[in-house]
Amino acid sequence: MSRTIRQNAPNIAAGSSTMGPSTAAPSTLDRLSRRVVVGLLCTMAGLAAAGTGGAFLLKPGTAQAGRVVGDTLRTAANYARLPAMIFTLSDGDRLRELRVRVVLDMEPTAPAKTVESYGPRIASAMTNVMLETDPGELRGRNGAFYIKDAVMRTAAKELGAMKIRQVLVQELVMR
């Protein structure tokens, strides 16, 4: 039995001497992990540079000294509400009732109270426009566009120099 141990011992020693210190090239896994780490570091550096550049490009807004906050908010929206208008339309066989409520979005320089004082005049002028309207023109989606256009033209004639941005329909009901 000692003889078999002696024979195996030189083989073990010989195998260990061939292994020696690890001087071989790094494995594929090591090279791949280094590339991933370098790639992640480059990505992080790029994102940091982009964030810093964005911070310099997007400067915060400057405060407007001497301006009252209420004036700033007033210039954003200037609405004038017109009175509810009720029109009677005829389609040949029967009479239809049309109820319309609109709001005018005015330029910031036009005082809303002044525009609202023109409301009865605009409603009266709209009555004349709607006498010529066929109820079939007001059906579907085109009805709102027709009303907006008619109110825009009529209000522009009545208001003269005051500019209207948009006509907003609050209610449009035909019975």
Automatic annotation (TrEMBL):
Membrane topology, as annotated: Single-pass membrane protein
Cellular component annotations (GO), alphabetically ordered: bacterial-type flagellum basal body; plasma membrane
Keyword Cell membrane: yes
Source domain of life: Bacteria
Record field: transmembrane: 36-58
Biased amino acid composition, Polar residues: 1-26
Chain residue ranges for the region called Disordered: 1-28
Pfam hit, one: FliL
Keyword Chaperone included in the entry's annotation: no
Compartment annotation: Cell inner membrane; Cell membrane
Primary location recorded for the protein, binned into one broad class: membrane
A GO BP annotation: chemotaxis
Record's keyword terms, sorted: Cell inner membrane, Cell membrane, Cell projection, Chemotaxis, Cilium, Flagellar rotation, Flagellum, Membrane, Transmembrane, Transmembrane helix
InterPro entries: FliL (IPR005503), TAT_signal (IPR006311)
Family note: Belongs to the FliL family.
Annotated function: Controls the rotational direction of flagella during chemotaxis.
Protein name, UniProt field: Flagellar protein FliL
Species the sequence originates in: Azospirillum argentinense
Organism phylogeny: Bacteria, Pseudomonadati, Pseudomonadota, Alphaproteobacteria, Rhodospirillales
